[in-house]
Amino acid sequence: MQKMTVPPAIKNSIEYVLHQDSKDNRLILLDDEYWQQHFSDYMGHRAIGVIYHPEYEKGNYVPTLLPLRYDALIYIDQSNALHPLHVTADPGKVPESYPFGL
């Protein structure tokens, strides 16, 4: 586990455009004409997963035609790292979420 700072979005990426449009958190319905005009071309869409290397930031973007990929998008301009639950596993029991679940 590691707390990391995510660098600002690269210029002309989806996250960059949304941040420049407004720093408000919002639900974006992608059938809206306003957003369809903004995202009518392929743009980089940041993909951060379990493994993240900020030194390779440009490689974390996937070319995306947003209105064709999603119906809606929840945009959160800024967030903070989550804190892990301090739970000790019982090595004598199978975890409740094994092999699937939350």
Question: Secondary-structure map with pairings?
Answer:
Elements: H1 14-21, E1 26-29, H2 33-38, E2 43-46, E3 61-64, H3 66-69, E4 72-75
Antiparallel strand pairs: 1-4, 2-3
What does this structure look like?
There is one protein chain. The protein has one domain. 18% of the residues lie in helices and 16% in strands. It has helices at 14-21, 33-38, 66-69, and strands at 26-29, 43-46, 61-64, 72-75. The longest helix is centred in the N-terminal third of the chain and has 8 residues, at 14-21. The chain is elongated and about 55 Å long. 7% of the residues are buried. The mean pLDDT is 84.
Write a compact overview of the structure shown.
18% of the residues lie in helices and 16% in strands. It has 102 residues and is of the alpha+beta class.
